[in-house]
Amino acid sequence: xxxxxxxxxxxxxxxxxxxxxxxKGYLVFPEVSRTxxxxxxxxxxxxxxxxxxxxxxxLCLTMMNEQRCQAGKGTIxxxxxxxxxxxxxxxxxxxxxxxxxxxxxxSGYHPTAFFCAPKRDIYVQDAERxxxxxxxxQIHQQLVATYQGLGYRVAEVPWGSVEERASWILxxxxxx
Length: 176
Prior knowledge:
Blueprint: E1 4-7, H1 14-23, E2 27-29, H2 32-41, H3 53-73, E3 78-81, H4 84-93, H5 100-105, E4 112-115, H6 133-149, E5 153-156, H7 162-175
Parallel strand pairs: 1-3, 1-4, 2-3, 4-5
């Protein structure tokens, strides 16, 4: 079963939405980049996106490939908080070229990627999310363009309660 991508700019409620999917009994995989930033920040010479974007992208690629493989083995739908297409978008934003193996690795997910747009009134900057709200919106637009370029259908998840957003996604998945 192909994992289902929930992505979008920072501060869009993706993690909250994924947690709701987990409570409904679906398999969910957390955001790799946030976990890596937390881990790498504790290491002397840790690899961080703002000091070594290509190196950080490789770490993300390895972990996201593992997530996709684990998710694909399940018998129930699995949702991932960001996917390999996100790495491609962030490399583009950072002015780096996107290696071919990233573009190839970005396939293998459900053909529709569900996008959550940043919302100003819930947006919070922190140690793992250093971007301004304007930058978050720009990141969102690059993510949409990248996923479209990779051949995914983009479905913008409307704002509402977490339950409404989860139901909206599940309805779209049933419709094919």
